[in-house]
Each structure stands twice: as C-alpha cells, then as structure tokens.
From TrEMBL:
UniProt cross-references to Pfam families, sorted A to Z: Peroxidase_2
Stored InterPro entries: Chloroperoxidase, Chloroperoxidase-like_sf
Name of the molecule in the record: Heme haloperoxidase family profile domain-containing protein
Source organism phylogeny: Eukaryota, Fungi, Dikarya, Basidiomycota, Agaricomycotina
Tree of life domain: Eukaryota
Residue ranges of every copy of the Heme haloperoxidase family profile domain listed in the record: 1-137
Molecular function (Gene Ontology), one example: peroxidase activity
Membrane-crossing segments per the record: none
Record-linked Gene3D superfamilies: Chloroperoxidase-like (1.10.489.10)
Amino acid sequence: MSWKLNLADLSARGWSKIAHHASLVHPSGIPSYTPDLALLENLLSAASRSGSPGMTLEGLAAVHADRARNLPRPLSGFHAQVAFGECAFGWLVMRNPQTSVIEVDTLEQWFGEERLPEVWEDSRRFGNTVGLREVRETASQV
C-alpha cells in the first residue's frame, strides 16, 4: 500500500482538515494553492521592522494574532492549535540556532516559495530534531 501527501492535500479546508483561516500567508475563506502576496509582504515586513536580523517567535505570534483578530469568527479549538503549531514548528525548524530568528530570505523561501530554504539544506537539516512535545511547548508561547 502506498501513501502520498502533497501540498494540495494540506490546503484542503474543513472541520477535520489542517488548513485554517488564520494562515500566515494564505487568504481566509477561499481555496488557496499559492501564498497571497499581500499576506506574504505583511509577514516579511514584520520581520524586517522587528529590529532583529529576522523573525522572532514573538514576531510570528504577533502576525498570527493580527490574522486571528481580523477573522469574521474565531477559529475552532482544533484549528487554533494547528495555527499555534504552524508558528511554533516553523520557528523551531527554520530559525538560525545562533540568532534564534528566521532570516528574511529563509521566510521568503519557506512561506513565499513554499520550498525548503537553501540554508536549511546546508546546515539545519541534519541534527535538528524537533519533537511534538517541543512544538507544543513552543506553541504555548504563541
């Protein structure tokens, strides 16, 4: 038996699906297979004006909170947890371990181009294990 997952599967919306209306770069309420340029620009500009060399966990949390605050109705409990996990997992996997930020180029490649960033392939892929407990603990800070 073969099992395959692709980005189209992940973008499906519904009560039992992981796509949610507070996505950092995908619009609310409509099917979306590519990042929304205005939402992407908002994410990248938040990282640029943070005073850090990239996006902090607090910065991701602020962008997420702004998205959630502007929804017509709150996320379900399940989708709220998925949204917190999106921020936590993205930060844990893509951050620079020396600076604890996600550089703007990395953000653009991961969230904008929806591909693994070059720096991740070079230096962060191996030896960077992220467990569900760590994601959950980090998500509680979002």
